[in-house]
Amino acid sequence: MSKAGALANAPQFGSQEQRIAANQLGMWTLIATEILFFGGLFLSYVTYRVAYPSAFAVGSRHLDYLCGTINTGVLLTSSLCMALGDLSIRKGRTRALAGWISATAALGAAFVCIKGFEYHEMWRDHLVPGFRFDPSVSPQVELFVCLYFIMTGLHAIHMLVGIGLMAWLLKLNAASRFSERAHEPVKMVGLYWHFVDCVWIFLYPLLYLVPKL
Amino acid sequence: MRVSESSVGPLVATYVALMVLLVMTAATRAMPAGWWITPISLGIAALKAFLVAYLFMRLREEKALVRIFAGAGLFWLLILLVLTGADYLTRSWYV
Amino acid sequence: MIASEQGDGPSYLQESTVRSWLGTLDHKRIGILYLFTITFFFAIGASAAAMMRIQLAYPAAGLVTSDAYNRLFTLHGVIMVWFFLIPSIPAVLGNFVLPLAIGARDVAFPRLNLASWYLFVGGGALALYSILVGGVDTGWTFYTPYSSTYSNGHVMAMAGGIFVAGFGSIATGINFIVTVHKLRAPGLTWFRLPLFVWSIYATSIILVLATPVLAITLTLMALERVAGVGIFDPRIGGDPLLFQHLFWFYSHPAVYIMILPGMGVISELVACFSKKAVFGYHAMAFSILSIAGLGFLVWGHHMFVTSQSVYAGVAFSFLSFLVAVPSAIKVFNWVATMHRGAIEFTTPFLYALGFIALFTIGGLTGIFLATLAVDVHLHDTFFVIAHFHYIMVGGGVMAYMGGIHYWWPKISGRMYPEAWGRVAAVTIFVGFNLTFFPQYILGYLGMPRRYWIYPEQFHTLNLVSSAGALVLAIGYILPLIYLPWSFFKGARAGTNPWGATGLEWLAASPPAEHNFRETPVVTRPAYDYPPL
């Protein structure tokens, strides 16, 4: 029993346009939920930064500013690659898409590696809360470091998911599932990737650039 | 497709702008200490995020409904921050 | 064996293998899956309540130790809030009715819908595990630093269960929002939607914007518990109140998740059994949206007697008064709908009447609690408990029961026994008032909540309350018997046994898998009843 106009594998939709619009709206709704998810962490951060401004400045100086800045550049570049990949599939260029997606994933992996290096440095300097944290460091600075790990850790988890999604896109592309007119997953994964980039855009100044007052 | 949707130019221009803004943000570390550094660096961050959302995420080409959805999360986050701030910032006021 | 009437194909109940149920993508079957699961959790939460009421029947009954009592009220709160009330109307009735009501063949994302149910079940399993290995004694509110540092209960598993189930809620919310935006039948403009659809839409907005904050809050609490990081720990400069701000930013809107769908159901019931359009349709729709929006601005009223700023308290108190306005508008409009209507005192309508009475009482007592000075006296007493049970049970659960009975012919293709339905509805109303009205008085007189014993002077009222709980239990058990009975032996229902408006009543009872042979086209307003 099929109705004329209903999509065969998605009978709830009457047309491809409707399906595309629904997917896009769903993705933006998901992004809204993620904003609130990270939002709780931002609230915690703001609360304690206003309460302990000098401790936060000290804590910020413990971080590897160079790694953080390079990482921001890496992530912004990955967003460009993702956007160029989306552009290329709009023109039906599946080979170019594969290249850009791979570049995005590689840059994302580089980000995670640099982050891992930073974490290692913190561990080496006894700055991981709960794991032989340096007792000479004041409790409020420890609070900053806690928030640093939680916020960047949650972000890194989102990055790993994003890299996984890139691999999924490559797999679909290799199976010739994308074309000029049908490439919804690329758009949606792109939205996710750019969003995760936006979160880092705010994390960078908040964590690495706390000024001494 | 409109020209903007199908050309590389705007995307690369956005990227260049983002990198310039990154250099500006990074440079705030070398600025002398002051209360203005935070608003500047956060303002630059907001501009970067806006560029990513408007151009990379293509909000420029979207209908109003999508833009409302995009803004809703931010608006609600503001509620969380502002009303909680109303508690923390007024606790020390004397009755 | 169960055939649909209009030749749209076999009914959605036809295929009966376990695999067809556990792997279904049909929103109607997913609604039924939720129906079974939440009924199971309701039984667990109710058992805890029964034990509490037995303990409180006497000043020092000795049925349970103080520690066990703490674990019982925590269990009751967690299970009833997150595993019964929040999913109840949205996940059962919303899933079943929403696509039918807008003339769609399913929700926007059927696989996500099934994933929601599995997330719910997974979270529930974790919570059950926590209960079985000894439970949690922090209260459903998990206040730090007790929950994060000192409690010896199984907090991690319980919080983990809520966390996982929360993602199921978020997924449902995303699904419903996109469904209402994109899958409405031709001609079904926003202001022709049934108010039930409006209420599900507004609830979904709350689900997607509030639940993530709960998720991160539980994560932070868990991190503090496991790794000793001190976000909420005063010893290293943390603030326990930050937890409360984060927790209540979700949990206050959560109570609107629990009541708004109920209000949507009541609009359907009142219109159908007065055979009249809902009075003030636009005001009702805007009230639903206002309640959802304003509900996000009032959470500090749970924190008046903490060390929260007095000025913030004033702001939150004022905003809490504001949110009462759209709620009151709804009550007036329901009554105005009934005025000069052709009333039929069917079971669903009895539940609707009960809702209006009990929600009004509960809502008014909310105003008492929103008043700063009064709250100083009433906070953490049984007055608060009576207030929220009047709204969530006297309101929410009665709306759920009314909705189940109203849409039962559509869900099962059968009629429930009307006489037993009315008996149960009246029993529940009487039992409910006997249980909870004395608690207003007890709270006013100073009896604190979450205590396993109490002074002798509170004995009589507590005994009445416990006796009432027994009556209430009987009222809830009756449908648990006659509804399954009716599924097999009840009179077969026609397509529209109530003579109601609404697109769901065009589909067969029970509907075919894809609901409609042809998508209906809408040209009339909602509640298009002929003039009386």
Account of the 3D structure:
The complex is a heterotrimer of chains A (213), B (95) and C (532). Chain A has 6 helices and no strands. Chain A is mostly helical and 213 residues long. Chain B has 95 residues and is mainly α. The N and C termini of chain B lie far apart (62 Å). The relative contact order of chain C is 0.12. Chain C is globular. Chains in contact: A-B, A-C, B-C. At the B-C interface, helix 4 of B face helix 8 and helix 10 of C.
End-to-end span of chain C in angstroms? 39 Å
Reading the helices and strands of chain C in chain order gives HHHHHHHHHHHHHHH
Report on the biggest sheet of chain C: none
Strand percentage of chain C: under 5%
Largest interface, C-beta closer than 8 angstroms, per-chain residues: A-B, 49 and 48 residues
Number of strands of chain C: 0
List low-pLDDT spans of chain A.
none
Number of helices of chain C: 15
Q: Kindly, what is the distance between the CA atoms of the first and last residues of chain A, rounded to a whole number of angstroms? A: 71 Å
Task: Provide the helix percentage of chain C.
Answer: 55-70%
Report the average pLDDT across residues of chain C. 95
Structural class of chain A: mainly alpha
Query: Given the C-alpha coordinates, what overall shape of chain A results?
Result: elongated
